[in-house]
Amino acid sequence: MRNLxxxxxxxxxxxxPAAAQVTSMQLEDLRAQQQAAERRAIDQSNQIQALEAxxxxxxxxxxxxxxxxxxxxxxxxxxxxxxxAPTATLPKYPAMSDAALAESNKxxxxxxxxxx
Length: 116
Hints:
Layout: H1 2-20, H2 24-69, H3 98-113
C-alpha cells in the first residue's frame, strides 16, 4: 500500500509541472500581446507630444496676437525742406583736369615701357 501511495505522489509531482507549462503557441500569443501593448504606448506618447507642441504653438500665437492688439504703428510723413534749415555741404574732392590726367597717364605708360 505504501508503494501505491508513493507511486501516486510521484505521479502527481511529475504531472503538476507538466500541466503548468505554457505551450509555445500561448507563449507566442503573450509576446504578440506585449508587442502590441508597447506599440500602443509609443503611439500614445507620440500623440501626447504632438498635442503638447500644438498647444505651445497656439499659446505663442495667442500671446503674439495679444501683444499686437493694442499697438498702433506710427506712420512717418515725408517732410519737405524747412525754411532756414541748414543744408549739408558737399565735401570738396580733389579735382584734376582731363589734360593733366592724360599727361600723368602718358608718363606712367612711358615709365612702364622703359624698364631697366
